[in-house]
Amino acid sequence: MIHELPHTRETLHGHFSRGLAAVATIEPGDSVAFSCPNAGWRVAAGEMFEPRDEQLDAGHALIGPIDVRGARAGSTLVVQIDEVRPGTFGETFARDTRIEWTVDADGGTATDDRGATVEIAPFLGVIGMPPDEDGIHSTGPPRRSGGNIDCKELVAGTTLYLPISVDGAHVSAGDGHAAQGDGELSGTAIECFVERAQLTFDLSDLELRTPVARSAGAWLAFGFDEDLDLAAEQAIATMLDLMERELEIDRSYAIALGSVAVDLRVTQIVNGVKGVHAVLRDDAIRMA
Q1: CATH number of 212-281
Q2: In 3-state terms, what secondary structure has residue 175?
Q3: Are 25 and 69 a contacting pair, CB within 8 Å?
Q4: Which residues are 208's β-sheet partners?
Q5: pTM for the full model?
Q6: Domain-wise residue ranges, the chain
Q7: At the topology level of CATH, where does 2-146+158-204 sit?
C-alpha cells in the first residue's frame, strides 16, 4: 500500500522529537510518497513555505513522523528508497555566495545562474528517527538512528538499514539534494524542492552498530562522530561486522581483506558531527 503525504502544516516539522504525533501509521512493507520543501523551507525561487514556527521549524523541512507497526527500539528499520524526483528549483550557499539552479530532472542536469552545468543524482539528505530522550533535537547532525546523513550514494534503488531508537520508529525524511560531492564542503548541496519521493519501510532483526546501506553493487557502512578519526573507526567496525556475516569469515581475516578491498570515503564534514562511509564493492573480493 502507498500512503500519499503532501507537504502541509500538518505533515511538516523542523526538529526531531519522540513527542511529535505521528502523521501516519503504516504496516511493514507499505510505502510512503511525499513532496517536500528544500532544507531552507523553500518551495520555489523566492517562495517560502508558510506558516512556520521560528523555534520548532529551525531545522530541515521534514515529512513525518511516520510510525511502523511492530517497530521496536533495538531492532532495525529497513528503508527502501524507491524514487527521488527533484523539482526545477535549487540553491547552494558558500560564505557570501548564493547560487540558484535550474534543475532538469528528465535531462539529468542542473544549470546555475552563472552558466555552470552539473549532472544530478537526487537523494534525500535526511532519513532518520529521534533520539530516545525527551525534548527537541536538532535535525543538523547525523545519529546512530539516522538523520542528516547527507550521503550521495543513497539514491533511488538503494536500501538503508537504521537502528531503531524508539518504539514505532517515528521516522521522518526530507532535505532533497539534486547533487552533492562527498564532503559537502560548503555545507550545502543543490538544496532542492522534492517534487516526489517514495520510501518503502520494513523491519529486520539485523543487529547493527551503526547504519548500513545496500546500493547497486556495494555495501556501505556509516560512522558518525565530531572527530573524523572516530567516525572512520565506527564505519570500519560496522563494515567488518558485515564482512564477517556476508563472507562468513573471522574478524582477523576481515581486517586483512578490508585493508585491501574496502574504501573509506568522507560523507560530510559540515554537520557538527562528521560522517565517514566504508564501501565494499561486490566485485572487490571473490571467495573460493
Answers
A1: 3.10.28.20
A2: strand
A3: yes
A4: none
A5: 0.96
A6: 2-146+158-204, 212-281
A7: Jelly Rolls (2.60.120)
86 within 8 A of 37, measured Cβ to Cβ: no
pLDDT tens string for the chain (288 positions)? 999 999 999 999 999 999 999 999 999 999 999 999 999 999 998 899 999 998 899 999 999 999 999 999 999 999 999 999 999 999 999 999 999 999 999 999 999 999 999 999 999 999 999 999 999 999 999 999 999 999 999 999 999 999 999 999 999 999 999 999 999 999 999 999 999 999 999 999 999 999 999 999 999 999 999 999 999 999 999 999 999 999 999 999 999 999 999 999 999 999 999 999 999 999 999 988
211, 126 Cβ separation under 8 angstroms: no
Tell me the residue length of the chain.
288
Residue recorded with cell 545496500 = 214
From residue 220, how far is each of 11, 86, 190, 272 by CA, in Å? 30, 24, 23, 21
Span 243-272, pLDDT tens digits: 999 999 999 999 999 999 999 999 999 999
Distance CA 111, CA 188 (A): 16
All three cell numbers of 127: 532519513
**CA 96 – CA 17 distance, rounded (Å):** 33
Q: Pick the closest to residue 133 from 265, 19, 13 (CA basis).
A: 19
Identical fold between 2-146+158-204 and 212-281: no
DSSP strand pairing (146-148 vs 191-204): unpaired
- What is the rounded distance in angstroms from the CA atom of residue 262 to the CA atom of residue 267? 15
In this structure, what C-alpha cell is assigned to residue 164?
Answer: 531503531
Question: How many CB atoms neighbour CB 277 within 10 A?
Answer: 30
